[in-house]
Amino acid sequence: MTAITITKIKSGFVNIPAKFEVGDNDDGSSHLVSSAIYDLPDGYSVKRLVGSGDLAIFNAAGDHCELVEHSSGRPQIIDGSRHSPVLQKANQ
């Protein structure tokens, strides 16, 4: 498994969930919640998005995956299949 840093950012609105970004993206915003290191499951990789250059997670088929907040508060990978792993913090 590969360890990656994920940053959780509050939306600033009550009805809009937090979002997650790959990398330590502390832009000085008051909405930054935390950064933590998580284990990326086998079959997933981190690459730069064409156009923006932002880091993102891709599945084994090369499809861009979204990160959403799981009910546990941890990031969950949504890759368009039935497999939607919830990330576990890396052992440090």
Shape: globular
Q: Major beta sheet, specifics?
A: 4 strands, antiparallel
What's the total number of strands?
8
Briefly note the structural class of the backbone: mainly beta
Domain module count: 1
Spatial separation of the terminal alpha carbons: 13 Å
Order of helices and strands: EEEEEEEE
Strand fraction band? 35-45%
Q: Enumerate the strands of the largest sheet in spatial order, edge to edge or round the barrel.
A: 2-1-3-8
Average pLDDT figure: 85
Percent helix among the residues? Answer: under 10%
Helix count, DSSP H or I runs of 4 or more residues:
0
Residue runs with pLDDT of under 50 for 5 or more positions: none
Assembly state: single chain
Rg, Cα atoms, Å: 13 Å
Question: What does this protein structure show overall?
Answer:
The chain has 92 residues and is mainly beta. It has one domain. 0% of the residues lie in helices and 45% in strands. It is built from no helices and 8 strands. It has strands at 2-9, 19-22, 32-40, 45-48, 55-58, 64-69, 75-78, 88-89. The protein has a 4-stranded antiparallel β-sheet, with no helix packed on it. The protein starts with a strand and ends with a strand. The model has no long low-confidence stretch (mean pLDDT 85).
